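Researcher: Please translate sequence to structure tokens.
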Amino acid sequence: MLLLSAAVEAREPAVRTVLLSEHPEDFTPSVYVKGAVSTVLRFEAPVDPAKTRMLAWEGRFEPLLVGGRKVVVEPLRDLGEDEGVPLLVTLTNGREIPLLLKAPGQGRRAALDQQVNVFENQQRYEAMYSALMDSLKKQRVLVEENERLRLEERSPDHALATLLANGEVKDTPFNQGQRWFLKEEGADVLVQVLTSRTVPKVGVLFTVTNHGKTAWSLKEVRLSSVAGSKPRPFALRMQHDEIAPGATGRIAIIANNSVFQSPQGLEQLALELFRSDGLSQAYLVLEWRLFKE
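Model: Translation complete:
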């Protein structure tokens, strides 16, 4: 069985700026929250605790924490895709700011908010500085993403993974090995081990059939050793970013044979596939002998 794990990177806190002056009066800004994770809302004036409240929050949220210019919200569980909890924040100057607490969108459409800076007057230094930091961070992320994509375009492993994800196994040096069929919540997953006598690489192909009512998308794939959970490098390609209800899509993984090596010899690896809501969709343990022809 095989566990796929992308290398863990140090990430900056997810800080976002909302400028109220950029939105029409009938528009309510959204704040993206997750179960058992605190999100801090920061305002340009002190908050009035007595007049700041959520609607229909009992059983879904911890009580609000209000102090100074900050409000802390924490859902008890993940909100549903169609759930929205209204939050009315009242500042001590009388300004009322309505917000809508929602679950992060699937895929990359909306990320979890760890801190949201809410400003009314974008000409104030603090608002301008916060917006500038937002812009610089987005620019840095785009530069890093472009560099990653440029390197992947030159990677033989990513080229092989692309062929496999598109169903073109015959155009690769791989042959089909062992197969497992996993029936999981919301999806059926066919796992195929891919072997080769000509290249020192291993491959795994997931074929996911979505039986849910909403689109299926991938959050993360992890590949690591079973014993020490040390991450292993790999190339990943998806046939589609999302799999519509009733549809099928493929996810391909390619790694060098060296992923099984350790100072102690050959190790078992673990492969885990997580869908966008964080649920583990497949878990396998993989041994080197499965890839030997």
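Researcher: Any highlights?
Model: Residues 125-153 form the longest helix (29 residues).
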